[in-house]
Amino acid sequence: MGAQIILKVHPADNVLVALVNLEKGMTVNYEGQDYIIQEPVKAKHKFATADLAAGDSIIMYGVLVGKAQQPIKKGGLISTSNVKHAANDFTIGDRDTNWIKPDVSAFSGRTFKGYHRADGSVGTANYWVVIPMVFCENRNLDVLQQALVTDLGYGRNRSYQRQSKQLVELYRAGKSVEEILEADLQADYAGNENQRLFPNVDGIKFLNHSGGCGGTRQDAQALCGLLAGYITHPNVAGATVLSLGCQNAQVSMLEEEIKKRSPQFAKPLYILEQQKVGKESELLSEAIKQTFAGVMLANQQTRQPAPLSKLCIGLECGGSDGFSGISANPAIGYTSDLLVALGGSVILSEFPELCGVEQNLSDRCMDVETAERFSHLMHTYNDRAKAVGSGFDMNPSPGNIRDGLITDAIKSAGAAKKGGTSPVTAVLDYPEKVTRPGLNLLCTPGNDVESTTAEVASGANIVLFTTGLGTPTGNPVAPVVKIATNTALFDRMRDIMDINTGTIIEGKETIQQAGARILDYVIGVASGDTQVAAVRHVQDDFIPWKRGVSL
């Protein structure tokens, strides 16, 4: 495989992707055809393969991704000034559920070392969670965190307090502003992982949030479903729940949602209601004791071999760039196909980023009822967004646009590659739980933290997260594997990246080779042998989705 500087993603496309910066006047050749670049085209951006008139279709990934708003010359840059979002509508068509399963012989018989739960699920980690029913309890969670985390050996953040002390010393020594800014400061690593009191427990996680009251009853129900998803999650051994008592999100509602997900729920669950207990000091003392006792119980569990079919992988992207849909997303799409062929589960979410590829996903649904549910959720979500002055076409962020994802359909066509090619076995509404192996579609916003939070609540015990611009996103209970779409990003932000797929762009590796490499890496993470950057940095992002507000 040799290096190339331009790429056509699909044979039907009428745009080419620049893999490097192209200067005006350059002549580039792709498969025997010459193109004269009409204006500078930055790497990751696209140019036209033929003269286009106003109103002509822009095709990429083999689908409609936009309409020309003015004439564009062959070799001309495709940009927000000359192209507007456009996507084909979709119908409930014929089923297209046949797929070519990848060769999984290299993974046949492979296992990972996980935590086996009573309901048959297997965790890739072993956490205790502390959950507030309402934002009023967040302060009490902070007190519990201060009381428990460090002394139990879970304090792992890099401490920058030493740097402020150094600056104070320099200031007192009379150093100037310029000298202060030039100072070489040192940070301490406060990790004491080897001093854990409970070696079989990965940590105590505190799921602070801003919900539980002041919203609609539907908001409260959705929040309780999300929290129940974390309490019943295979990576969670048990939970301490703090309730104020008068909020919309009542404990009874949480218990109903737990029962929906786990009818024979058997994990330790301690619930404390502040208005019943009375004194805050008594509430906190009881919560500390119960949490400590719960962690003692969790520590009795150890990792045991489990088949790869017990893996449920969330597929996510954030800070996407023009290479996302060419390297990292197709790579984890192949990883998805491998895992599905092995009997595992994968979750594709971010419904605003499926705009323009709905027909393909609808046709891949196993039955008409599943396709109809997908159609209903997509149309209802988009209509709600339009009602408040937005729509799926407003999904790309400024960073996306700067890096070549100039319409939602372009972004979506690349984002959907994460789901691979297997049939859709289920369509889930937020925050429902995965119950079927195979490819599951989960209705969430495109916001990467809200979506990742939801995927984990639905059962993802590992998340594969692709990024072209760089993002530190993590999750409190599920390892989030950060996958760079290009080598420049991987090298620049290596402290928060785990895997590089820029090798695909450089012609050093095929999509299939990268996808298999990623699954091999996932097995190490699932077994606790490999620690991802988001876990190392304690990047515990947790944001419930307040439905109808976020794209």
Report on this structure.
With 551 residues, this protein is an alpha/beta fold. It contains 17 helices and 25 strands. Helix 5 (251-261) links the parallel strand 16 and strand 17.
Mind sketching the topology for me?
Blueprint: E1 6-7, E2 15-18, E3 27-30, E4 33-36, E5 46-48, E6 57-60, E7 63-68, E8 77-78, E9 83-85, E10 111-116, E11 122-123, E12 127-132, H1 138-148, E13 158-159, H2 161-172, H3 177-182, E14 188-189, E15 203-206, H4 217-231, E16 236-243, H5 251-261, E17 269-273, H6 274-277, H7 280-298, E18 304-307, E19 312-317, H8 328-341, E20 345-348, H9 358-363, H10 368-387, H11 398-402, H12 408-415, E21 424-428, E22 438-442, H13 448-457, E23 462-467, E24 480-484, H14 487-492, E25 499-500, H15 502-505, H16 511-526, H17 533-536
Helix pairs in contact: 1-7, 4-5, 8-16
